[in-house]
Fold this protein.
Amino acid sequence: MTRRTTLVRGGLLAAAAALALGAAAPHATARQADSGNWLFVTVTHGDGRHGERPGRLLLCDPPQGHAKAAEACAQLDAVDGDIRRLERRDTYCPMVYAPVTAHARGEWNGHPVDYRETFANGCGMAARTGAVFAVDD
């Protein structure tokens, strides 16, 4: 064999190994998420996608993913994962227009969850969605 053939074969083997490992990783992640209720939550600041920050994976068995994960999981358990049914908190929010869009997708008690809503500001979002979207550090 020539040196070029050996390099090509080595490169193909490395690529095949990388593909095999890459295909196995999402399966392991999905298997972990299947063991409990989970949501991938994002909060986008502003009118467009330019304000989107990285999302967080909220896991509830045990609660983890952001600082208020335990509180968020308890709130979601009370409404069977239906974010629209969360109890609205009575609070006074400033009349400042600083739009935020909350988006959650995942699974709760075996049912798919896909929620998206835009609020006038972060205070309004927190009053409506509780701790679920408390992703800012």
In short: The longest helix spans residues 3-34. The chain has three helices and five strands. The mean pLDDT is 79. Strands lie at 38-45, 56-60, 63-64, 100-108, 111-119.
